[in-house]
């Protein structure tokens, strides 16, 4: 009924949007088959403003949103009234099981979030800094020994693969106290299962696959849990990864629970799984996560916590290679801070040191703005609603509207990559990578969309986390919202890694200047044009400093 209402509700039809190339496929292929993320979205933003209509498969409408107030409404204020679409939650279920990424909006998601939050508290994350620094330094040493030894002029390094291996090892140790051995090239079932998963399974889905997914909206829900057994390229890949991970997680949870029951001999254990097991066992049995849910969190953590950070770091190094003056200034800032650290008798960078490095902060934020690896999200309205707009849009009939009424069942597509390019939020040069914008910004007057620098890239709600009172509040407020639980983890990890790499190496675009594209997959990875079948990659010329 809701699907039918959404199809027949006519207010959305008045919102302007691109003509649809095909009656059957609508504009969906424009997005999924575009060469580089943004090719079509930035044009639509220019043509229609902060909201536009796309045609989905079988004639349905999709409302795409870049407007700050609209995004705040859909992702924060009424977040549980905009659950994930069936296509998205089924995919997340297929990859991770009954994890927080799958968890249906409302009581189930709030229960998952509550048990998981303690593992992402600020003190807990501070304790991971030595791990991040150790992993970064291991990566630098491997480059020096294996690739750059005897080559003072440097060599071309495929940095994305190395960074994905580094972040996989980091998440393994931080989340499970487990060594994936990815940097050491250990032949490991688990690390192989996650290698290039999205590039292998999601790039340019077939038309039949898209039509099949559109039909999920009409299928009875219980049936959707069995779709994963179909023998398609992507389902086979997801299934084998999940089976390997499930086996591993089951053992790990058993071990951690045994520790807990036996009095937890190693109370200092900080890995996410230990904190999760402790938090879960302290919960009221009614609100505890089941064994299956606990196992699934491990898949979710590995999935959400490694390629995301690796791809963002890759884009950061690419931009630093393109802007050698910014790279030099960053290296000078690092050298200055290193001198202060040595003068103070400290051994290595602390979190406060990173926070006192304005250019480092700006480079991380600007990269998250410019290259949001989750370039758009999928939501569906659970009930009739009116979406407010900060800037009015012009309709098909020439009216100016500042609210869009929608019917239950309406599919909404928060377009994170276009919000991050709004000229009235980020400046007239929003389509340029320019970290200095974060050295000069006054965010007070902006509609608060993102918790971190008002960026939407982590889908976060806005609160000033430096204030301890608000941090406390955040733990509760965030219990009901689907923002990225790992945003701070990722920011600290990226700072720790980029500081080590820029301190030790100079990055440049290789002489053959490969054309890099932002592949339209779930984590917007870099690919070399013409070599897409080789998966994500970013060749950069690397010279030891
Ligand atoms: C640059 C790195 C990252 C980016 C840009 C990012 C972005 C996002 C976004 C946009 C969402 C919302 C997705 C949706 O609701 O449809 C999300 C959710 C999530 N992220 Fe991240 N993420 C990053 C790193 C991480 C890391 C390192 C972890 C874990 C250690 C993590 C764990 C999660 C989890 C568990 C959720 C689901 C939260 C929920 O539904 O309540 N992410 N992330």
From TrEMBL:
Named cofactor requirement(s): heme
Keywords from the named record: Heme, Iron, Metal-binding, Monooxygenase, Oxidoreductase, Signal
Molecular-function GO term, any one: oxidoreductase activity, acting on paired donors, with incorporation or reduction of molecular oxygen
InterPro entries xrefs: Cyt_P450 (IPR001128), Cyt_P450_E_grp-IV (IPR002403), Cyt_P450_sf (IPR036396), Cytochrome_P450_monoxygenase (IPR050121)
Heme in keyword set: yes
Pathway of action: Secondary metabolite biosynthesis
Residues at which heme binds: 484
Gene3D superfamilies: Cytochrome P450
SUPFAM superfamilies: Cytochrome P450
Pfam families in UniProt: p450
Domain of life of the native organism: Eukaryota
Similarity comment: family membership: Belongs to the cytochrome P450 family.
Identification of the protein by name: Cytochrome P450
């Amino acid at each position: 009924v809701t699907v039918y209402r959404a199809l027949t509700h006519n207010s959305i039809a008045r919102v302007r949007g691109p003509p649809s190339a095909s009656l059957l496929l609508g504009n969906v292929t424009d997005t999924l088959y575009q060469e580089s993320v943004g090719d079509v979205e930035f044009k639509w933003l220019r043509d229609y403003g902060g909201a536009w209509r796309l045609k989905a498969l079988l004639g349905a409408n999709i409302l795409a949103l870049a407007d700050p107030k609209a995004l705040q409404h859909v992702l924060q204020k009424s977040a549980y009234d905009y659950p994930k679409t069936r296509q998205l939650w089924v995919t997340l279920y297929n990859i991770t099981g009954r994890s927080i990424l799958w968890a249906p909006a409302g009581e189930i998601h709030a229960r998952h979030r509550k048990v998981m939050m303690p593992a992402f508290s600020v003190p807990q994350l501070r304790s991971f800094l030595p791990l991040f620094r150790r992993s970064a330094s291991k990566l630098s040493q491997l480059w020096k020994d294996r690739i750059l030894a005897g080559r003072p002029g440097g060599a071309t390094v495929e940095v994305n693969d190395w960074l994905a291996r580094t972040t996989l090892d980091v998440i393994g140790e931080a989340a499970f106290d487990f060594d994936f051995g990815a940097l050491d090239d250990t032949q490991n079932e688990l690390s192989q299962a996650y290698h290039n998963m999205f590039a292998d399974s999601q790039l340019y889905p077939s038309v039949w696959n898209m039509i099949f997914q559109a039909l999920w909206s009409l299928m009875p829900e219980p049936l959707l849990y069995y779709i994963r057994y179909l023998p398609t390229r992507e389902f086979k890949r997801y299934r084998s990864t999940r089976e390997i991970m499930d086996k591993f997680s089951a053992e790990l949870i058993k071990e951690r629970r045994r520790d807990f029951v036996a009095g937890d001999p190693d109370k200092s254990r900080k890995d996410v799984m230990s904190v999760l097991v402790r938090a879960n066992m302290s919960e009221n049995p009614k609100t505890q996560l089941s064994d299956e849910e606990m196992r699934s969190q491990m898949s979710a953590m590995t999935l959400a916590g490694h390629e995301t950070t690796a791809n963002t770091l890759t884009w950061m190094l690419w931009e630093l290679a393109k802007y050698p003056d910014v790279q030099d200034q960053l290296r000078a800032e690092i050298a200055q801070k290193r001198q202060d650290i040595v003068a103070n008798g400290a051994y290595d960078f602390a979190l406060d040191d990173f926070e006192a490095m304005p250019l480092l902060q700006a480079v991380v934020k600007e990269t998250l703005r410019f290259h949001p690896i989750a370039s758009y999200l999928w939501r569906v309205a659970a009930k009739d609603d009116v979406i407010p707009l900060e800037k009015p849009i012009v309709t098909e009939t020439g009216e100016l509207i500042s609210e869009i009424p929608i019917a239950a069942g309406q599919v909404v597509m928060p377009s994170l990559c276009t919000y991050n390019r709004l000229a009235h939020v980020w400046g007239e040069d929003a389509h340029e990578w320019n970290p200095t914008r974060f050295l000069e910004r006054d965010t007070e007057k902006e509609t608060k969309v993102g918790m971190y620098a008002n960026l939407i890239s982590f889908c976060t709600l806005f609160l000033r986390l430096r204030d301890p009172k608000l941090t406390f509040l955040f733990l509760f407020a965030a219990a009901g919202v689907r923002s990225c639980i790992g945003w701070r983890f990722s920011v600290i990890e990226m700072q720790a890694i980029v500081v080590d790499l820029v301190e030790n190496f100079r990055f440049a675009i290789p002489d053959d200047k490969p054309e890099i594209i932002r592949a339209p997959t779930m984590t917007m990875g870099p690919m070399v044009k013409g070599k897409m079948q080789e998966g994500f990659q970013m060749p950069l010329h690397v010279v030891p400093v």
